[in-house]
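Note to self: user wants both folds in one dump. Writing first protein now.
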Amino acid sequence: MDLFQLFGDVDLLGAPAQALAALDAQGGNARGASPEAVAKTVVFLATASSVGDSAEVYWKACRPKTPSAYAQRGDEAARLWELSARLCGVGRAAAA
């Protein structure tokens, strides 16, 4: 099942469902990175002893990355939290 079938016309984080379907057709990444390329950082973080004491939170291409100003916005974090809760059927959002 692709994202468009799963969410229909739900507006996720300001993106129309058709845009999500296009991303799903590309493997889910707007910049076209393959799942293998994305997984490389996950495997690196899980196995590299050099990151064990790191205080970094965000990583990309096996390197720490400063989050964007948008990613640090509390109002957008709250909106994403509510959306996630609604889609998962948990919390206050599920009752709405």
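First done. Writing the second protein, which came from a different request thread.
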Amino acid sequence: MEWFKQMWSKVWRVIRVLPVVGVFIVLATSGEVLRRKGYVLGVLAVVLDILPIICVIKAGIEIFTGDLIPDKLEPESAPDFETAA
């Protein structure tokens, strides 16, 4: 029974640190999110991902529906044609 208490205390320490690690991961990838989604929607996505409970709910919804916050629309570039000589 004593080994269970020791193991549980170690597991509890890891569980308490996980949200902090998640915040660092979100902040490290925030530049890419801002590039893909634009400034306003990117900031919204990063803020939602930083909040631990909201992030879990958002991730659960995105499993079934896809990305909640869409990427910004890129203007379609004109096709590149070679000029005839």
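Dump finished. Worth passing along: The chain has a mean pLDDT of 87.
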